[in-house]
Design goal:
Subcellular location: Membrane
CATH architecture of the largest domain: Orthogonal Bundle
Family: Belongs to the cytochrome P450 family.
CATH class of the largest domain: Mainly Alpha
Protein name: Cytochrome P450
Bound molecules: protoporphyrin IX containing FE
Strand order of the largest sheet: 1-4
Cofactor: heme
Shape: globular
Keywords: Heme, Iron, Membrane, Metal-binding, Monooxygenase, Oxidoreductase, Transmembrane, Transmembrane helix
Radius of gyration: 21 Å
């Protein structure tokens, strides 16, 4: 199916003059070596598309719970809205966001981090002990598998004060958070390579959402894990275009 799509996109770019910057596939098709040969093979394009698709559920969990927190936290929502209205004011109708615009969305990314702290899409992961480790009075022998869990540090009140409180400004000073404490994206050599992609898609989505709509929740705040967190009743919301408010 993805291969058929790639062939369709190739025809669009080569014969119908579609922009090579239209989407991920056309961008990858447009990458050329010095001798003008395609730089990315068809199989590599398939792998890229599948990677983005497969990992989409973590980003969608983040956005889902951000939408929910923003609906429940009017003061946080007001600051986010102001941040995005200021950016929107500098844009002509239909003009795209730029990298510079993304750097202005500092508070929104703190809201995202606080969402990830409280409802991490990935609950934890495995590591293998490379040598005997003594920790907290226990010996973990070399070769054992260890399961690290995100909430162990995210909900530890010696690291994040009042951990049950939704307080995005706690991320204002990154220096106050010890290394390997905020581990929503993991840590070390296997840290999530999709971090930057997730950051961009989240900021862009929230920008268009808050500048164009208001919303009200039509469900309670419960959720379960499967293993990604999912609101128990889904996320039904009443969405209203802002100009009509
Ligand atoms: C909010 C969104 C996301 C969260 C919270 C998240 C979280 C994580 C976590 C916790 C890990 C394990 C890291 C570790 O073991 O130290 C991981 C690994 C990974 N993530 Fe993400 N991720 C997100 C989005 C994405 C996206 C959008 C992509 C790709 C487009 C992606 C690709 C990957 C890959 C390939 C790995 C495996 C890395 C390896 O084993 O070396 N992630 N992610």
């Amino acid at each position: 199916m993805v291969k058929d799509l790639i062939r369709e996109k190739r025809v669009e770019v080569e014969q119908k003059g579609a922009s090579p910057h239209q989407d991920l596939i056309t961008c990858l098709l447009g990458m050329r070596k010095e001798d003008n040969e395609e730089a990315v093979t068809e199989n590599e394009i398939v792998h890229n598309v599948m990677l983005v698709k497969k990992r989409h559920n973590t980003s969608s969990a983040l956005m889902t719970f951000m939408i929910r927190f923003l609906a429940n936290e009017p003061t946080v929502y007001a600051v986010v809205l102001q941040e995005h209205e200021e950016i929107a004011k500098t844009k002509l109708s239909g003009e795209y966001l730029t990298w510079e615009d993304l750097t202005k969305m500092k508070y929104t990314w703190r809201v995202a981090m606080e969402t990830l702290r409280m409802v991490p899409p990935v609950f934890g992961g495995f590591r293998k002990a490379q040598k005997d480790i003594e920790y907290g009075g226990y010996l973990i022998p070399k070769g054992w598998q260890i399961f690290w869990t995100t909430p162990m540090t995210h909900m530890d009140n010696s690291i994040f004060q009042e951990p049950s409180k939704f307080y995005p400004s706690r991320f204002e000073s990154q220096a106050s958070i010890p290394p390997y404490s905020f581990v929503a994206f993991g840590g070390g050599p296997r840290i999530c390579p999709g971090y930057e992609f997730a950051r961009i898609e989240t900021l862009v989505t929230i920008h268009y959402l808050v500048t164009q709509f208001t919303w009200k929740l039509c469900s309670d705040n419960t959720f379960s894990r499967d293993p990604i967190p999912i609101p128990t009743q889904g996320l039904p919301i009443k969405l209203v275009p802002r100009k009509l408010c």
